[in-house]
Amino acid sequence: MKTKSDIRTGRHCVFNLHVHLVFVTKYRRRVFTAAILNDLRASFSKVCNDFEATLVEYDGEGDHVHLLVTYPPKVAIAKL
Fold first, then answer.
1. Which of 42, 46, 71, 79 could join 53 in a cystine, given CB atoms 3.0 to 4.6 angstroms apart?
2. What is the DSSP string of 44-78?
3. What are phi and psi of 36, to 5 degrees?
4. Among 2-16, 19-33, 37-51, which is the least confidently predicted range?
């Protein structure tokens, strides 16, 4: 059940939009180290803040990265 704090509001709308993004390396090669994953977290957080979105969860392994992002309806996922 959604609580009132989970639902965001705009001027003329009420929304709760989430997107699960997965970025995969070419040929699933293991190129991400722990240091790179930490740098990526900072980069993804900055991009989300620029688009008024929130990085809810972030996780990664050597060959892929998972993001769970909440975003406002005025932002297209392709632009994010």
1. 71
2. HHHHHHHTT-EEEEEEE-SSEEEEEEEE-TTS-TT
3. -65, -40
4. 2-16
Distance CA 14, CA 2 (A): 13
- For a pLDDT cut of 70, what percent of the chain falls above it? 94
Question: 54: Cβ–Cβ under 8 A, 6 or more apart, which residues?
Answer: 48, 69, 70, 71
Domains and CATH numbers, the chain: 17-71 (3.30.70.1290)
- Kindly calculate the radius of gyration of the chain based on its CA atoms and give it in whole angstroms: 15
Render pLDDT for 44-59 as a digit per residue (tens, 0 to 9). 999 999 999 999 999 9
Q: How far apart are CA 43 and CA 22, in angstroms?
A: 15
Q: Which conformational region is residue 12 in: left (phi greater than 0), alpha (psi within -120 to 50 degrees), or beta?
A: alpha
